[in-house]
Known about the structure:
34% of the residues lie in helices and 15% in strands. It has helices at residues 5-21, 54-68; strands spanning 28-31, 37-40, 71-73, 76-78. Strand 1 (28-31) and strand 2 form a beta hairpin. The mean pLDDT is 84.
Amino acid sequence: MTLGHTIGDRLLKQAADRLSGALFGDQMLSRIGEDEFIVLLDRPPACSLEPESGDSARLADRLLGALAEPFDVDGHRLLLSASIRRQPLSRTW
């Protein structure tokens, strides 16, 4: 069942608002695809983006937690699933 583009757009807006609310400082959220977002951050020297890093794991938990509660879009109770990939970017560009 589809609810149409209007409901989908409103759901994406609510999701973006929640994700933005989970960020700190100069962390930046951007939508890069139909239903894909990226978080950009300038990591301080003491912070690692390696998968086992506590800092990146806490950020991932905050982002997933922001999407865990149902969304109410025009009377429709909607649940989202999400996945996160952490990817350090090279600074040699």
